[in-house]
Amino acid sequence: MNKPNFYIDLEKEFPEFMNALENLGKTVKLTAKLDEKTTQLVQLAASCAIGSEGAVHSHTRRALEAGAKKEEIIWVCLSLVSTIGFPKVAAAISWVRDIVK
Known about the structure:
Layout: H1 5-13, H2 15-31, H3 36-50, H4 53-65, H5 70-78, H6 81-84, H7 86-100
C-alpha cells in the first residue's frame, strides 16, 4: 500500500509517535477476532459516520485488498442512512467512487 504524502511527512517529523501508532495497529490486527475484510468494512462504516474523506478512501482501498466487492462497500454506506442521514451517505459514496470508479 502506498502511503499518502502527509503520512510520510508525519513519519519524518514525528517518528516515535508514528511508530507507536503503527505498533498499535499491528497489535489490533494480531489480536483481532474479525477477519480482515469485516474489519475494514467496519472501519469504513465508522469513517463514513465521522465524515472523513481520507479515511473512507483508505478503508475502501483496504476493504478491496481484503476481498470486498464494490457492491458490498457501497452497501455498507447505504446501510448507514437511518443512522447518519442521506447527505453523509451520499458524500461517503462519492468518496468510495473516487477509489472504485
